[in-house]
Every structure is written in C-alpha cells, then in structure tokens.
Design brief:
Layout lengths: L1 E3 L5 E3 H25 L2 H5 L1 H9 L4 H18 L4 H8 L1 H14 L2 H16 L3 H24 L1
Antiparallel strand pairs: 1-2
Helix pairs in contact: 1-4, 1-8, 3-4, 3-7, 4-5, 4-6, 4-7, 6-7, 7-8
Length: about 150
C-alpha cells in the first residue's frame, strides 16, 4: 500500500519509511551541530525562513520554505556535507512533505517547523531530539496503520 498525495502520485510505504529514517539522522545531526557551533545571529537567520513558511500561500510554498529552513540549519551546522545531503534528496523530501501534509495537514507541518526553530533558538538539544523523534515516530505509526488497511 502507498501513501497517496492529493495529486495522485505515490511514495511506497517502504520509501516513506526510508525517508523518515534518513530525516531523523540528518535533521538531528544538523540541529545538534547548529546548537553547538552556530552563532546567535546564524540561528536568528532562521526566523525569516520560518516567517516565510507561515505566510505561504500554497502547500508548494510551504514545502519550499520548510526545505530552505532545514537546509539552512544544515548549512549553519558547520558540516560541509549536510547541506549537500539535503540538496541531493530535495525532490524526494518535497514528495515526502506533500505526503506528510496529506496524512496530517499543512498546519501540522508548520507547527513542526515552529517547534524546531524554537528549540534551536533556545539551544535545547534534548527537546529538539525529542520533538524530531516524536514527529517521525507518529508518522511511522500513521504509515503502518495505512499499510494495514
């Protein structure tokens, strides 16, 4: 069984699970390194990206700004490869976030972005790891329940 986007294209359950697992690793590493290495100004630079996400007129814009937010976090982490990893999976991440929004709603994706930035600004590694894991585990549960149907 596949998770279906609103437009009808699909990601298989296996692919979605793989994307989630990859996101956990990349996002947690990016966040952890950014909390340790980024200046306050660099972390503050994420706020306009979050504001752009909040003001998105469409799902496509929200996904673009969500990608920019996580990509910038990878960039300010100081690890040269993390932004490249995000960029190399851009199309797959866009498709995943479309499926994610279809499973939940766009507000849930936006709230996830807001909590992510709030934790980064507070340099709260423990809470950000918890939030990343909670969102992805919940997504995996949703995926499994769809697969069982």
């Amino acid at each position: 069984m596949a998770i279906t986007k609103a437009e009808g294209s699909q990601l298989s359950a296996e692919t979605t699970k793989s994307v989630l697992e990859l996101l956990i690793v990349i996002v947690q590493l990016s966040a952890s390194l950014a909390i340790q290495a980024a200046s306050d100004e660099q972390l503050q630079s994420l706020l306009p990206l979050l504001d752009a996400a909040k003001n998105s007129a469409s799902l496509e814009e929200l996904i673009e700004h969500t990608f920019e937010l996580y990509h910038e976090t990878a960039y300010i982490s100081g690890n040269a490869l993390l932004p490249l990893l995000f960029s190399s999976f851009k199309d797959l991440l866009y498709k995943f976030w479309e499926c994610f929004a279809a499973m939940y709603d766009t507000d849930y994706l936006l709230r996830s972005d807001e909590v992510f930035v709030k934790c980064l600004l507070a340099r709260d590694s423990e809470k950000i790891d918890y939030c990343i894991n909670a969102v992805t585990k919940d997504s995996l549960k949703q995926l499994q329940s769809q697969t069982v149907r």
